[in-house]
Amino acid sequence: MTMMAYFRHETAWVDEGAEIGEGCRIWHFCHVSAGAKLGRDCVLGQNVFVAKTAVLGSCVRVQNNVSIYDGVVLEDQVFVGPSAVFTNVVNPRAHVSRKSEYRQTVVGRGATIGANATIVCGHQIGPYAFIGAGAVVTRDVPAHQLWVGVPARFVGWVCACGERLPDDSLHCAGCGSGYVLRGETLCAL
After folding, report:
1. In 51-158, beta strands by DSSP E
2. Does the predicted model carry a pTM greater than 0.90?
3. From residue 59, how far is each of 14, 40, 115 by CA, in Å?
4. What are phi and psi of 131, to 5 degrees?
5. Which residues pair with 136 in a beta bridge?
6. How many helices (H) does the chain have, and how many strands (E)?
7. Which pLDDT tens digit goes with each residue over 87-102?
């Protein structure tokens, strides 16, 4: 164990030049590349890779076996489930360099990416959106929407606390928050 403003397990590798926020915990067999930026209080589970231009906000939780490639931005309080997949090139080939074609993926504040979900690059996941386990996201996902399936599709609304909202009331049974639809946008009361 290393004594510093963050915890790094002895098997984890943090390259010189990586920016790691105070209170972060980086677990077994992780690799954080030079240039990567992690806000405060992030947790990287076992075997997580963070590329040089990846950005994680504060209080981000990344579970085991996730690679956060160049061009991926995870805003504050994002949760990424085990073995979720991010891409950064639409049409990769081993024999063709496409590093100049990386497409940015932004996951908004408080959003959840379920276990084994795949997020195809170049899309935005809105704040507090919820991507179900195993879903394949091939387009933008608006705030507070629940998407599941292959390809992923809208199936309902989600509270900021993570509970699915009843379609008839949009009132959260978990935390008591209420919402209203304004057009196609869910707004807190």
Report:
1. 55-56, 61-62, 67-68, 72-74, 79-80, 85-86, 105-107, 112-113, 118-119, 124-125, 130-131, 136-137, 145-148, 153-158
2. yes
3. 18, 6, 18
4. -105, 120
5. 118
6. 0, 25
7. 999 999 999 999 999 9
